[in-house]
UniProtKB/TrEMBL annotation:
Descriptive protein name: Peptide/nickel transport system permease protein
Protein localization: Cell membrane
Native source organism of the sequence: Solirubrobacter pauli
Gene3D superfamilies listed in its UniProt record: MetI-like
Biological process terms in GO annotation: transmembrane transport
UniProt cross-references to InterPro entries, sorted A to Z: BP-dependent_transpt_permease (IPR050366), MetI-like (IPR000515), MetI-like_sf (IPR035906)
Alphabetized UniProt keyword annotations: Cell membrane, Membrane, Transmembrane, Transmembrane helix, Transport
Main localisation: membrane
Transmembrane segments: 74-96, 103-123, 129-150, 196-215, 235-258
SUPFAM superfamilies: MetI-like
Length: 273
């Protein structure tokens, strides 16, 4: 996956392992992620604590699993919400054109004018620091990407001969969109969705890292990295390494799968993943 040509199979396995840890980890390794045990603080990985403990004696494997559950719950929500609203905006702008296209795209351009992370941080601060506001901020930044891509696809599709034929046969705009436009934009949604999935995990971790996402004692990978940074330089590497590895694997796997999906769906790629 990380050497030579990226493998979709390896990326899929990485994501499946992380999903399994998120779903079954808290059940099998049933410990309280917020339980403080000062006597067990800063213990290296061992049989009792496979990923070690942090400065408060909390089991890192438990917190890693709960952090995976949080990230892998929010990321799909961002993908679905962004695809729905962004796709709706893009289709309306691309199919109906005119004033709706001008107004909607200017709004999307205004959102795109801000760096995504800065905008997500601003939304989080405005709504109040926490996981929910961080998720809303990430969703907002993902909408213009979908809108721009779907509008481009809709503009290309609406000028094709079969669309003209459907109009000549009396098909209305709603039927044309449902029967002839939507099926052709699904590949774009799939590729963009895979990219947004990785972006969501990375941005959620970044917001947690700067203190705007999940707040302690909530287990979240970015927050765990922040809490462990001061101990990494004194030799307690495991506090930062494991949540950092989780972010790295999840984001890399999502990006590899996005590339492979695009290769399969793009005719110019020859259908090879």
């Amino acid at each position: 996956m990380f050497f030579g040509r990226p493998s979709a199979a390896a990326a899929s396995i990485c994501l499946l392992v992380l999903i399994a840890l998120a779903v079954f980890g808290p059940v099998i390794w049933n410990k309280d992620p917020a339980a403080v045990d000062v006597a067990s603080a800063l213990q290296a990985p061992s049989g009792a604590h496979p990923m070690g403990t942090d400065a408060s004696g909390r089991d890192i494997l438990t917190r890693f699993n709960h952090g995976a559950r949080l990230s892998l719950t929010i990321a799909p929500l961002v993908v679905v919400v962004g695809a729905f609203f962004g796709g709706l905006v893009g289709l309306v702008a691309g199919v109906f054109r005119g004033w709706s296209d001008a107004v909607l795209m200017r709004i999307m351009d205004a959102v795109l004018a801000f760096p995504p992370l800065i905008l997500a941080m601003a939304v989080t601060v405005g709504m109040g620091v926490g996981v929910t506001s961080a998720a809303v901020g990430i969703m907002l930044t993902s909408i213009p990407w979908y809108a721009r891509l779907l509008r481009s696809d809709a503009l290309s599709i609406r000028s094709r001969p079969y669309i003209e034929a459907a109009r000549a046969l009396g098909a209305g705009r709603a039927r044309i969109v449902r029967r002839h436009v939507l099926p052709h934009v699904v590949p774009t949604l799939l590729v963009q969705g895979a990219s947004v999935f990785g972006y969501s995990i990375l941005t959620l971790a970044a917001l947690g890292f700067v203190g705007l996402g999940a707040q302690s004692p909530t287990a979240e990978w970015g927050t765990m990295i922040t809490e462990g940074l001061q101990y990494a330089i004194t030799g307690q590497w495991w506090i930062v390494a494991f949540p950092g590895l989780g972010v790295f694997l999840a984001v890399t796997a999502a990006n590899v799968l996005a590339d492979r999906v695009q290769a399969v769906l793009d005719p110019r790629a020859g259908g090879r993943a």
